[in-house]
Amino acid sequence: NFRERSFKPLRKEIGFVFQDPAASFNPQLTIGECIAEPLVIHTNPSPAQARKRVGELLESVQLPASYADRFPHELSGGQRQRASLARALILNPKLLIADEPTSALDVSVQAKVLELFREIQQEFGFAALFISHDLAVVDMLSHWVGVLYKGRLVEQGIGHQVMGAPQHDYTKRLIASLPVPDPAEQARRRADHRALLGI
Questions:
Q1: Spelled out in words, what is the top-level CATH class assigned to the domain 10-142?
Q2: Nearest to 78 by CA among 93, 63, 57, 96
Q3: Taking Cα atoms as reference points, which of 46, 35, 38, 47 lies closest to residue 8?
Q4: CA–CA gap between residue 186 and residue 179 (Å, rounded)
Q5: Given a cut of 70, is residue 1 above it in pLDDT?
Q6: Which of 31, 100, 103, 145 is buried deepest, with most CB atoms within 10 A?
Q7: Is 5's pLDDT higher than 80?
Q8: What CA–CA distance (Å, rounded) separates 58 from 56?
Q9: Domain boundaries, the chain
Q10: Residue 172 · residue 196 · CB < 8 Å
C-alpha cells in the first residue's frame, strides 16, 4: 500500500484511459477543461499555456483543437475515447494504463482507436499496460502478455508465444474460445477445448 503523500509525485508519471469514456469526464466541464485538469493540478500553467497544450494533444489524437470548447455529450464514443487519451498524455507520462479502452465502443470504431493507440505510443514513447478480456486487442497491441486467473498471474511471456503456444490450461481455454474464419480450424479448437474439459 502507498501512502498518498509518497504516491502523489508518481501520479504525474502515470496516465489513465478508462473503460467508459462517457463516465470518465465531468459533464459540466468542457473537453478542454477535462483534458487540462491533470496539468492544472500538477503544474499550475497559465490559461494560455494550458489551452495551447490541450490543442496540441487534441490534434495528436486526430481531433480538431476546436473540440476543446465542446462538452462531453457533444462527442461520439470514439471521439470521447480519443479525448480521454489526450487527457492521459497531458503530463507526458512514462506509463499509460488503459483499462478495457475499447469495450464501450462500437466494433467499427474499435480498430481505429486501437490503431491510434499504437501510433501515439510510437510518437510519445511511453510504456503501456493494457487490461483487456478481448484477445484480439491483446494480440494486436501487446509485446508481453500476462494472463490472470482468479486474481493470480498464471502465465506470461512474449505475446506471440503465449497466443501461439499457451502453457496454462486457462490460457488454452481462452484461445480455444476465439472464433476463427476457417471451419476446420474452429472444429479442431472446439475439440481441443472439450478435451481440456474432459467432455
A1: alpha beta
A2: 63
A3: 38
A4: 7
A5: no
A6: 31
A7: no
A8: 6
A9: 10-142, 157-199
A10: yes
Cell for 136?
A: 484480439
All residues at 6 or more sequence positions from 65 whose CB lies less than 8 Å from its CB, including other chains: 54, 55, 56, 58, 59
Are 24 and 103 a contacting pair, CB within 8 Å? no
What residues contact 66, with CB distance under 8 A and at least 6 apart?
Answer: none
Let me know if 194 is exposed, middle or buried by CB neighbors in 10 A (0-12, 13-18, 19+).
exposed
Helix (H) / strand (E) element for 5: namely helix 4-11
Instruction: Specify whether the CB–CB gap between 126 and 94 falls below 8 A.
Output: yes
The DSSP secondary-structure symbol of 62 reads T
pLDDT digits (tens, 9 = 90+) for 102-129: 877 777 788 888 888 888 988 889 999 9
Total residue length of the chain: 199
